[in-house]
Amino acid sequence: MASKRKIVVTGFEPFGEHTVNSSWVAVQELGRLGLGEEVHLYVCEVPVEYQAVQELLPSLWKEHQPQVLVVHVGVSGLATTVTLEQCGHNKGYKRLDNCSFCPASHSCMENGPDCIKSVLDMNTVCKRVNDSNIGVTVSVSKDAGRYLCDYTYYTSLYLGQGHAAFVHVPPLGKPYSSQDLGRGLQAVVQEMLKLLEGNYMVEERKNKHCKHTH
């Protein structure tokens, strides 16, 4: 019997005006719903602190050895949809975190590329979820905001060689309930996993048909 795949999904603690962070609420709801019997889902809350992210993410990747994917979820006061972020950015971090700290270099990784894209085509994920009519609208963005969300996403993309995703959710009740967000998140992550599985099957077929030595 094949072993369960482990997927890590994170949300953020409260910060600023977000005294209840809908991202962690949504992730906890996803934890209750699960991702099916074949997937072991590990959820955790991430501090809104640059230095904590730098310490936590490498240990998350190493300790839990997620197979296929790590998904981070954050709140955006501007969002009215569940928003899939295509890429993370290395530079431009000037906002102070919950510890009133900001990286002196204003960047995530010295000498890292300016931008890293997820291996997932977020437009495909978005279309599939919207076509399923689950009552939660999904959209795609290429700017995760140059704060802890973007910082966490870039760091995870760097560590996981692109096998990460970031989802922005609106504040609670604007317009979605915690149950709506959990359901939307579940649909998004399930479509991401289907997409990755399809890509792996294509790669495996390619490898099987490749007989010559390199």
Structure description:
The protein has five helices and eight strands, in the order E-H-E-H-E-E-E-E-H-E-H-E-H. The chain has 214 residues and is an alpha/beta fold. The strands form two sheets. A six-stranded mixed sheet has the order 2-1-3-8-4-7, sandwiched between helices. It has one domain: Aminopeptidase (3-Layer(aba) Sandwich), CATH 3.40.630. It has helices spanning 22-33, 50-64, 122-131, 148-159, 178-209, and strands spanning 5-12, 39-46, 70-75, 82-85, 87-89, 115-117, 138-141, 164-169. Helix 2 (50-64) runs parallel beside helix 4 (148-159).
Helix content: 25-40%
Q: What is the alpha-carbon Rg in Å?
A: 17 Å
Q: What is the level-2 CATH architecture name?
A: 3-Layer(aba) Sandwich
N- and C-termini, Cα separation: 33 Å
What is the typical, i.e. mean, pLDDT?
A: 91
The helix-and-strand class reads alpha/beta
- And the CATH topology? Aminopeptidase
The profile of the biggest β sheet is: 6 strands, mixed
Estimate what percentage of residues fall within beta strands.
Answer: 15-25%
Topology (elements, then pairings):
Layout: E1 5-12, H1 22-33, E2 39-46, H2 50-64, E3 70-75, E4 82-85, E5 87-89, E6 115-117, H3 122-131, E7 138-141, H4 148-159, E8 164-169, H5 178-209
Parallel strand pairs: 1-2, 1-3, 3-8, 4-7
Antiparallel strand pairs: 4-8, 5-6
Helix pairs in contact: 1-5, 2-4, 3-5
